[in-house]
Amino acid sequence: MKKKIVAVFLCAAMVTGMAAGCGSSSDKKSETSADGNETTELTLLIDTDVTIAGFEAVAAKAEEEIGIKVKIETRPGGADGDNIVKTRLASGDMADLCLYNSGALLNALNPEEYFLDISGEDFVSRIDDNYKSAVSVGDKVFGVPYQSSQAEGIVYSKTLYEKYNLEVPKTWDEFLANCDVLKENKETAILGTFADSWTAQVPFLGDAYNLQQSDPEFAEKFDAGEAKWATTPAALRSFEKLADTTQYYNEDYLATTYDDGCDIMANGEAGHWFILSQALSNIYELYGDQVNDLGVFAVPGDSADDNGITLWYPAALYGNKNSDKTDAILKFMEFYLSDEALDAYSEAVLPDGPYCVKDYEMPDNAYDAVANDIQAYFESGKNAPALEYISQVKGADCPAICQELGSGQTTAQEAAQKYDKDCEKQATQLGLNW
Amino acid sequence: MERKKIYSNWFIVPAMVIFTVFFLLPMVISFFFSMTVWDFNSFTFCGFDNFKTFFSDTSLSSSIKNTLIYAILTCGLKLILAFFLAVFLTSKIKTKNFLRSVVFFPNLISTIAVGITFCALMHPSKGLINQVITMLGGTGVDWLGNTKTALYAVILTDVWKGVGVATVIFIAGMQSIDKTYYEAASIDGATGWEQLKAITVPLSRPAMNSVIILAFISGMRTFDLIWAMTGGGPGYVTEVMASTVYKQYAAGFYGLSTAGNVIMFILIAILAFPLQKFLLSREVD
């Protein structure tokens, strides 16, 4: 008899346990938003890899001026972060604002389903047109630029260049010749930071200007499924360049991280580093004026007359369509694009390239590499956005494929074929008819 | 035998409901979704395309090979090491209890922490292991960077971490062996090695089987250590099934990642069940 009672109890406990387990998700609505005059609180999901000093400066201003306070929730970057964003979107648990890549990666999120369409708002006209198309799907616009754009090129040590009497290369062959000189003198010719695998993509992705110059229709044909990386010579060239770099890396390049890389470059211990110009900000934060020992040049092409730099567009702030604070979100976005906010931003963080906002001039006190080197490519109009801002498809496994090629495990041809396959998976997922 | 049952069959209903809702149903659904291209809102049926992609894409199929290498090697190494550790730790030594906790200790640390620590120890230029090697006059190895050693470096770490559990199981098994067997054997003049071979090995068979099955399955499913140490790199040389599935999921290829999970499930099932059957059939009482 006793046993029976115990069994019934256990049974009941199990069932109630189950019910309790299912019912805990609905207690979120309790924090009612304050009325008009008080501050409204928005939440923002942001990854830990970006600098937030600038954003915090703007947010502090926003709280004063328009009564909107932004609470930051952090997530990791890279694949883990993508996972969190996708899961939170799918489960309807996204923060009010979300920071995420623009371009092809935004496309893969299915933004129409989740993000606020801002194409009808006045402030959208302030966004640079090229950037606007990178945060649009069809005629719907979704995001505002989080920070300045960046150059995707080669950061080089001016100190080493002076020491060995080198000149900024105009062609890929000249670049390799420079690397040979450094290598012969027992210097690290090219710094590899492959422990953070995204950095392995930069030699390949940074070649986009040259690719678009020699085959202007590639992106379009590629999206249509007609052109492939492995069979288009101009596209294959980008992979070949990455393969060329293999022999010049530092010895422990597969264990060196991006953060290590900033230290190494700042101390003039390596000649070149294929990286985004955001590294300049990181170096500035750590080493101050030593950042001015560094310069930037574009990934050289095969012709000396045509040198242009590849632009990396900033991630964007997107509004959650299903939030109950859409008015506040739009108000915050409008404020974020105002001159006042941009001033506050660039006071806190110097730009790594031009802003994606029309008629907003870069401040005068930018780093040498930005003010002289990158700006020159702009004034001459020799720049192009990276391919993922033009094309809809970017292979998700690009970092691993580039890491594999950069560490000499595959040939350029094999890597290109792998990348084609990887893009095909993406195209299938996007429902493109390849 | 016709004794009336004490409990009504209805008592298994709550457990069955949980089992069905959380195990059976998801399994059936995942079989279905592995044959579709889907996002969270809609799906298109595509037959066995996902499985074809999985096997034809070398970056995906190499993960199957790596998983098998990983499972077999970790299982084998743990088995051998744990056996001899257990023999040592059941013998007459003074610091027995202390040493037993030392052997078990690595298992108490979070896998991620172990991964990060070993990553630092194995750093090619700054890591402790290579510094010791160079101090002794050798040349350091790029443990996790070299494509030939990366997988084995992770395997060794896994063995370091997992050998404690296996040892504890072995110790439990060996302690339950009747001492009189050893006495009888030593009266008959058997050496220590002969006693080990003829008594300890066959009589600790049940423990050995548990160790093999547990180590093999956990080797097949391994993810956290790989993710913390190499992230599947450099390139794809340390990619295992679980990390591939995770990566496909993170990339938004939900159909493909479901297919990967189904393959992993089938692979574990067809390897683990016969293995267990085989091992049980060889147990002696």
Largest chain-chain contact?
A-B, 42 and 39 residues
Query: How would you sum up the global shape of chain A?
Result: globular
The CATH homologous superfamily of the largest domain in chain A is called Periplasmic binding protein-like II
CATH superfamily of the domain at 65-240 in chain B: MetI-like
Q: Low-confidence segments of chain A, ≥5 residues, pLDDT <50? A: 18-36
What is the terminal separation of chain A in angstroms?
A: 69 Å
CATH architecture of the domain at 65-240 in chain B: Orthogonal Bundle
E-strand count of chain A = 13
Q: Note the quaternary state here.
A: heterodimer
Question: How does the major sheet of chain B shape up?
Answer: 2 strands, antiparallel
CATH architecture of the largest domain in chain A: 3-Layer(aba) Sandwich
- Number of helical elements of chain A: 19
Helix coverage percent of chain B: 55-70%
Q: How would a crystallographer describe the biggest sheet of chain A?
A: 6 strands, mixed
Secondary structure category of chain B: mainly alpha
Number of helices of chain B: 13
Structure description:
The complex is a heterodimer of chains A (434) and B (285). Chain A is globular, with a radius of gyration of 24 Å. Chain A has 19 helices and 13 strands. Chain A has 2 domains: 36-148 and 314-363, Periplasmic binding protein-like II (D-Maltodextrin-Binding Protein, domain 2); 150-312 and 370-430, Periplasmic binding protein-like II (D-Maltodextrin-Binding Protein, domain 2), CATH 3.40.190.10. With 434 residues, chain A is an alpha/beta fold. Chain A starts with a helix and ends with a helix. In chain A, the strands form 3 sheets. In chain A, strands 7, 8, 9, 10, 11 and 13 form a 6-stranded mixed β-sheet that branches. Chain B starts with 12 loop residues before the first helix and ends with a helix. Chain B has a two-stranded antiparallel ribbon. Chain B contains 13 helices and 2 strands, in the order H-E-E-H-H-H-H-H-H-H-H-H-H-H-H. In chain B, strand 1 and strand 2 (43-45) form a beta hairpin. The interface between A and B is large, with 42 and 39 residues.
